[in-house]
Amino acid sequence: MRTGDLTAGAAKLQESWKKLRAHWDATTVEWHDAVSQDFEARYLDAIEPQLAATLDRMRALAQVLTSAQHECEQ
Asked: Which is deepest, 6, 21, 23, 68, by most CB within 10 Å?
């Protein structure tokens, strides 16, 4: 990943989230009490919208940086 390449970082973040969710889903097969439901609601469900917003902003900033780079090269 080159400096300023937010696209690769965003992809890595999204892939890590998918892996975390897959592991959590596997965990809930065995652990499905009130504590696990509280953990999911308090942490995982709370992260998801923030993560989506962060990824959107990273993609938008990546476009700005790419545009700036092209302008500077001309």
From this structure: 6
